[in-house]
């Protein structure tokens, strides 16, 4: 067993080399029209109507026993001053977009199914069935901002609905249960995960990405995965100052241009950062670490979808 | 000397770069109306440099425009050490200005006699008044008082204030180079610290070569401190009880004329196990800045332990000692009268179960003091414009290092004052912030409990001591169930693992890795690690990754105390073993040696440094790409099957040595007995 000849080694080596590359022709085996129909139905069913309102977005802080207001997270308060935002009603997908959804989109549009490494990309099969894989069909799709945007807009044109990525304000409004100040964290009850040892243990045990909606309870608006299962793209360009310049605004869409898109679902319910398309890799600065995050789509219409629409 | 203003310059920068002050620049460049508005390409006159001055006579007039005036008085500006001769007209101007300010000061004094409530009511209107009088410029928060201290040598008033932007600054000045040089002229006696007024006038007149300066000066003896711009007390060390590190306290006051003294006291209650540091700067008079600082480390070395809480297999809360730990607190209180009036701050450092609990307490009600005409206390934290600063660091003693030394794990200070002012009890927790891409030791006040208003005190981990933190955390994990540590949040733990993993994968020392901390790259390290694995797609590539990683592990372990692996939690070691074990074929084949090949050596070295059976078991359980829990027996078999007979037997040896061994934190960790692993040793 342990003392093999070089020949055996070479044979097993070449077998495996070939084994890695046998990809099946994608379109042949799938009933695409049916997949797309299922996807649009699923998309409609998953939309939760969110009644608009006015709230204080950003690190709203609290007033201490001494009567002085202070932010919850002083290190970045300069970037995220609380600001008043009014939102029209909209609908948001209860679940993040899964690999199943996203692969359907790629196949339907004849787009390449690729997997990205650091120094290279390669073809992959759609609808990965291995639950351990990061591409498992039920796990949230992690893609570039542009891919996420294209996906939502494609679904929009398919269904004739104004589907798009949610804005940063829309995300936070939902993450905080309609902008509540009791939701310092975007969990189901606004408490940090550590307040629920069994949940926090489950998160710790099951790794970063799990099938959508499978781990933490939904928030009171019925939305899943607002506090775990990966950071999330939203529509806005990132700007440190935009909200300072627009302290009171209705349906904010962020600055008109920028270099980084906002990512949500981090430490606190109001936390956000900007991420560029790519960064130099920590392992080798000559490689690009392309920014890929999870996302969900929003229906940018104040009128809820009703059964009659379907 | 001339300076051409560049884009982005401001007077303050130019002044600092040229070793002078804004006031000097304003005086030399009377065309500048507003210190905040200078423009690129503008030419500024700078004061002569020291080198240039040495070629001239001492005390030469620096801006001699017209020297034929009749002077009736000398004005000494304290913070720039210059004399300015005054004509009768200037003297009148300044007297008027003094009178206005004096009135303000007196008003301030009398209001300070009142109660806290009345002072609070008075404050707003007084600040407004000060703004009208251009004493406070709200546009310059760092430079609250637009005043400069002067002494006119005529008359009985020795200390007075004038506005920085009044007319006097446009006059020519006479620089006092130094006491030594001045003493050669005979007007200053360094021994007694006295100034001879007549000799000074003669000296100035002679230097000006225009002997029209005629003044009879009455010099008060207290003028001897003319050069004393800043006063600082010798640090006082005070040891409350034997064995406790002394608390070092000191005070500092600038322009001390009216700062009747800053005081600081500290107390220690041995029974209640808490230390009490109170700093009080009673700025009794006016418009002065005063500082008080205190430094104390807590707790004392003898009984310092960080208690880490975890849940055992029956889910009941347990506590384990983390090791030696202390918090260093530095309090510095700055305040200026007139706006925030007076300040005091109390900082409690309370020890319960070895866990330092920081609590800020607000100032008490106003009280009379004997220090000056009036004194009151206001909370530094609650005060409107008091700049109380509290800094500290969380320190950890590396028990593996010889000699044992304290390492600052991270620095308190991010909003420390704010959070401490909240008054809630706090507990320490390690957090990772995706927003700032940094680790924080968070003192959470009420945030977790969610009760009432609360805040969070971040303590940012210094990149340079990142490895110390990793060690510290690992030390805390030695005896506890790795999954249920309540003092580390899961994001922070995941990120810790990522950094350790990166350190080995990239073969980088901790310094090289931590340089990147604080950048956005930090957030993407987890992704990068997963991608580098999938980047190695073919068997050959994976083989190469395994060999490279094995080499990195071996050289990492050779780094001793700087090693990542040695302090890596099982999640890291399990993932590394998984990389070694990529089995496209039935055996490791990189070098077909008689003894050990590199991967076999790396596997054994990695298992050798297990701190305890628990560590070993967790490591083997986690041999998979994500480092999550799997089957111990299955993974162990996998590992053994991949190794040839002789090396695989070493696993049995390691197991028998580790069995029953429990690591004891707070003491030098007992490593498994080291065995020289060379090919020939077992051949």
Automatic annotation (TrEMBL), chain A:
InterPro entries on file: CTDL_fold, Sulfatase_Mod_Factor_Kinase, SUMF_dom, SUMF_sf
SUPFAM superfamilies in the record: C-type lectin-like
Coiled-coil parts of chain: none
Every Sulfatase-modifying factor enzyme-like domain range: 47-298
Source superkingdom: Bacteria
Cited PANTHER family: FORMYLGLYCINE-GENERATING ENZYME, SULFATASE MODIFYING FACTOR 1, 2
Protein name in the entry: Sulfatase-modifying factor enzyme-like domain-containing protein
Automatic annotation (TrEMBL), chain B:
The name this protein goes by in its record: LysM domain-containing protein
Coiled coil: none
Domain of life: Bacteria
Region (Disordered): 356-375
InterPro entries: LysM (IPR018392), LysM_dom_sf (IPR036779)
Domain LysM: from-to ranges: 1-46
Pfam families, per the entry: LysM
Species of the source: Halopseudomonas salina
